[in-house]
Amino acid sequence: MAITPPPPRGTSRPRPGPPPAGTDHGTPPGGSREASPDEPRHLTSPLLLTLVLLTAVMFQGPVRGALAAPVMQSWMTVFVAVVVQALPFLVLGVLLSAAIAVFVPPSFFARALPARPALAVPVAGAAGAVLPGCECASVPVAGALVRRGVAPAAALAFLLSAPAINPIVLTATAVAFPGNPEMVLARFVASLLVACLMGWLWQRLGRTDWLRPPARSSHEGRSGGAAFWGSVRHDVTHAGGYLVVGAMAAATLKAVVPAEWLRVAAGHPVLSVLALAVLAVLLSICSEADAFVAASLTQFSLTARLTFLVVGPVIDLKLFALQAGTFGRAFALRFAPATFALAVAVSVLTGAVLL
Amino acid sequence: MTTRLNGQAQAALLFLLGATVLHAGLTDLHLRYVKAGLRPLLLLSGAVLIVTAAATVWYEWRRPPHPGEPHREPRVSWLLALPLFALILVAPPALGSYSATHTGTALQKPLGFPGLPARGPLRLGVGEYAARAVYDDGRHLRDRPINITGFVAMSGTGAPYLVRMGLNCCAADAQPVKIALTGEIPPVLRPDTWLEVTGTYTPRRTKDPVNDGPVPYFEVTRATPVPAPSDPYDGAWGG
What we know:
Chain A contains 18 helices and no strands.
């Protein structure tokens, strides 16, 4: 899977040969950073951003022409729609995670969670039911929890359960499946089960050196306000960048994959479950939104759609990229496939019992 | 080491993003991509982004980052410029005939049919006409003039459809409902033109070439081009 985000377009193009030398004629905004000894000489980013913006505005005519093809327009619309739909939830989640990181004392979590990790896992998993947030937000929150000294197994259980079983998502599921209220229960049970099992699995098999400790923000030691807004700025630009990657993937799939493929897949019981599981990973839809998409996939069985709802919030392309960015690639490469396999197995079992 | 965004550039990017989101939320632009219900959240998040940008500039001005301070701003942040360009420079249109012809009709049997005025002309949505025609045998539709507004899409064989896309959540899951047009259709039809058609019910049906879904016919007596509505999607169905 080509998860690595493509190099940002802006960085590759305008890189003129002789970089502005030293401090003498650097741009004023970046001036103070120019003196930094570890980044001796290159284009300052404000200057580069200005160049990219100007280039885009100057060439907007040809760009618009190139994008006028219907397939490109449809791609752009879906891309913008996914970003616009997810951005508010991302911003709210980042505010919450910054508030936890800055204003909640570390000792609070030590007291709130049981000392034994085996017990802390289900408590943290159930705590996900209280905090509304989508998966883009739960990754930075889980990172903040680990930074605050919470056992990684418990933080991971929270990471997996929070986007799937919070009240907003369960309400959306009930609205999307008016004729099948058991879908809500099945989603809750299966998602919580996956979260706890993964937490326990990490506790037994996980090694700390796989988990890159989340970078301590450079805002430690500052006043509350500076640290809070610094954290918000960092997380929005970071998670937002990965959201853009996920939106591009979803738009490409939506614009390129023919609808007939789905019809063929729906006819086969095993294939339909696997197809929707893979689709959930590829589409990277926010958990607030995925119930409505699942409801629209009427050709598929309820169990297959449950798989879509359980897999999507715990692992998809966007989450993988976010996890790799927050916890390190070594972690994400091990954690993601295990989560996927477990989520598919648990949803099939839950579907067999409840649906 | 290529260039990473420093605080100032991030502040500029966040400010532009916030302003763009506010602009999309304050105008009808957001209706091309998401449902109207997201608007308060959009405005809120746009405001938060602008405040974040302002706070960044304010705190860096009060206490500039000293040299040598670890500055690990992720390079992936640059990608945030892409939706910015897409919204400011291109502002892609709402999904239209291209998506409609590549997606099967999403017509589903509704839970019930609310009562209609017994006589006189009717104004119906594309989805409502299609549902009543297919699943209610057109019981209240016969022998009366009906008005429907939607955009034109052409099938592969050149047959004209009147379409409205419906949203469940955002444009990423938009699905069309289609009505096949017959009768006095204007000789030249351009895809994506918005039409208000007047005509009558006909029991004739066809199947969507994409997914074999049911598509009712509509007997057109008059077709007038109309401007695209501010909310191009059919809000009457879905969540």
